[in-house]
Amino acid sequence: FWLRQDLPERKVRYEESTGTWDVFGYPEIQQAITDPKAFSSDTRRLSPVADQTSTEGMLTQLDPPEHQKLRKLVSHAFTPKVVADLEPRISELTTELLDGMSGRAELVDELAYPLPVIVIAELLGVPAGDRDLFKQWVDSMFTTNNRFSLTETSPEQEEYLAKAMAEVGKLTDYLHQHVRERREHPREDLLSKLVLAEVDGQRLSDAEVANFGLVLLVAGHITTTMLLGNTLLCLDAHPEQFARVRADRSLVPRAIEESLRFLSPFAATARATTREVELGGETIGADQLVLLWVAAANRDPRQFDRPEVFDVTRDPNPHLAFGRGIHFCVGAPLARLEGRIALNLIMDRFPELRTDPDSPPEFMPNPSMTGVRRLPLLL
Ligand code: HEM
């Protein structure tokens, strides 16, 4: 991973230009990610621009004890049983999307984006037909290739953030409308369950349910889109391993885990220090923004043998692509299931599939997202 290669010895460094800390090492990230008291998930208070959005119900930004209360609610929605029951619907959707593909195809537009977004929209109970709107609103958050500075705010940075916040605001308003409607007419969907749920004898507010839905909708699709694209990209680049997986489907789950390690979709997650801490031989003061580069940790030679080698038989594979500790990805079982079903059905349908040599893939411009946003294929 490029950041780690620049710094073979240092696992933690201060980045002067942005006023933030970068953490690249596996044990160092594990230390930070499992210590929410010293490394808070509420990073907004360090934001260089006033953030008007509320964090009520935003699971990813909450610390204990609020975090546990909400996490319990969402865990019910993603139990192994609930996720396993989605298998027929995910297979049906994948088959329908594959039916629309022939000859030359573009994986992201035709399968890797629509599949997870339809699944999460159906779970929440919002119309999957609105997915082009979600894409427009959510894309705005990830179109920059700049790292934000906490020390100097530039007009471009402020303009970008203002625009992104306005787009996210549209998604929140959209979810608010659905939440209000569910209060009056509950249905059998996740939004209704959240509207009716009680935490310590109290119902969640509309804002909490809407923000909760926002986190699920955003976290629940882009990352899985990248997982599907990255897995095909890695397999295509290693034809002998692709042939092995085609011949022995029991390797599919491991191939997906290895893709998550090798090209981790959610490359970095952020924390704010609450006090002075020692990490990787450095002293980090209180109220510092710390970026935990899980994608770099997933190639740490202290943890993984031959980390630069993509190996579909790697086992065990304790990668950090879904995080670890109290914020461990709620949707991991769902993402794994979607990956498994999609890869199997793609291999069944298109045994000769390869990337299009005349049309190279395009990658996400944002450094904290590792994945293709266009992957042209010859089927
Ligand atoms: C949390 C990655 C798919 C919902 C996380 C975290 C990571 C992650 C690294 C931890 C963030 C942190 O510690 O700050 C991924 C990847 C995915 C994926 C790589 C796909 C390949 C999904 C899906 C859903 C989802 C499908 C929902 C259906 C969430 C939620 C959290 C989370 C709600 C916050 C959990 C908490 O704060 O307690 N994800 N995710 N993710 N993810 Fe995922």
TrEMBL record:
Gene3D superfamilies: Cytochrome P450. It comes from the Bacteria. Keywords: Heme, Iron, Metal-binding, Monooxygenase, Oxidoreductase. InterPro entries: Cyt_P450, Cyt_P450_B, Cyt_P450_CS, Cyt_P450_sf. Belongs to the cytochrome P450 family. This is Cytochrome P450. It comes from Saccharopolyspora griseoalba. The lineage of its organism: Bacteria, Bacillati, Actinomycetota, Actinomycetes, Pseudonocardiales.
